[in-house]
Amino acid sequence: MKTQIFYFSSTGNSLCVARDIAQAIGGEVELSAIPRALKTPVPVTASAIGIVFPVYIWGLPAIVRRFVEQLDIPPSTYIFSVATCDGNAAGTMLQLRELLERSGHVLALGKIIRMPGNYILMYGAEPKWWQKRRFAKAKSAVQRIAPLIAARKPGKVDCGTWLGRLLLSKFIYNGGMKQIQTTDIKFRSTEPCNGCGLCVKVCPVRNVALHEGRPRWLHHCEHCLACLQWCPQGAIEFGKITEGRGRYHHPECSASDFMF
Ligand SMILES: Cc1cc2nc3c(=O)[nH]c(=O)nc-3n(C[C@H](O)[C@H](O)[C@H](O)COP(=O)(O)O)c2cc1C
Question: What is the pTM of this model?
Fold first, then answer.
């Protein structure tokens, strides 16, 4: 039985969860990066599909929403999802469930898994020992849901609290998403920038271009922060707020995993 997993990830948490699921369920598993699948559609040919992604502003990243909206899923396909977050996903899984329901599909299982946070606008990378604890817990969580996925059985859909769903995943999410594309006006490159262009390559939506050897942001940003987190020189800042904060990426991933 074939399974297809579509993933979005900017610093590797969701990619590693997708890889762990693939390993844990066994059989034939095809992993497809959502940014690439948006450009070159990947037909759904498997009996099960998974959608794995990070939580953004207590909801679905815009790129994941666009992807699900255009995905042509044959009826009776088993659909599961895992979202990674650093603390609170609120109603993220319900957003996905509702989106799928609009095209007549059922989300059979929706799991939230906590991982180290990558939202450097609020905090820098957490200590390594603490990250390791989260990785271990995440791997256990994958082991718990893997038998259900392998057997195409329904499981729980993590819903959050009603207050979180209303306040965070509706009001704050809708407000945040309206502004997200142009938040990139605050990105800037600093002195150590050597024009290597990695920021251009890891941007999932081609929102970064080099101009006279320095990055420029083009105002159709997903706010994934890959450009900033993967810069080998640590030479990208968001205003002043990210100065001195530790960069983060999952230790099992490298920048080449994010070049589309
Ligand atoms: C723009 C943005 C918004 C985020 N919003 C949330 C959030 O609302 N709740 C949360 O728990 N984590 C939030 N995070 C943290 C990520 O969801 C989390 O670190 C995730 O595991 C990153 O996955 P990735 O490495 O696959 O990109 C946010 C991160 C970013 C970049």
Answer: 0.98
Q: Which pLDDT value is given to residue 218?
A: 97
Q: Which of 194, 168, 156 is nearest to 87 (CA)?
A: 168
Q: Is 117 in the pocket of ligand 1 (CB under 6 A)?
A: yes
The pLDDT value recorded for residue 260 is 79
The Cα–Cα gap between 122 and 138 comes to 22
**Nearest one of 53, 51, 80, 47 to 149, comparing CA atoms:** 80
Query: Are residues 202 and 154 part of one domain?
Result: no
pLDDT, position 62: 98
Cβ atoms within 10 Å, residue 245: 17
Closest ligand 1 atom to the C-alpha of 117? Answer: 19
- Of 158, 175, 192, the last residue of a domain is 175
Given the CA of residue 168, which atom of ligand 1 is nearest to it? 8
Q: Which of 141, 158, 175 is the last residue of a domain?
A: 175
Positions in the chain short of pLDDT 50: none
Domain that holds residue 112: 2-175
CA of 250 to the centre of ligand 1 (A): 13
User: What does the alpha-carbon distance between residue 54 and residue 225 come to, in Å, rounded to a whole number?
Assistant: 12
Give the Å distance between the CA of 52 and the centre of ligand 1: 12
Give, using CA atoms, the residue closest to atom 3 of ligand 1.
56
> What distance in angstroms lies between residue 227's CA and the mean position of ligand 1's atoms?
15
Domains contained in the chain, number: 2
Q: Which one-letter amino acid corresponds to residue 113?
A: I
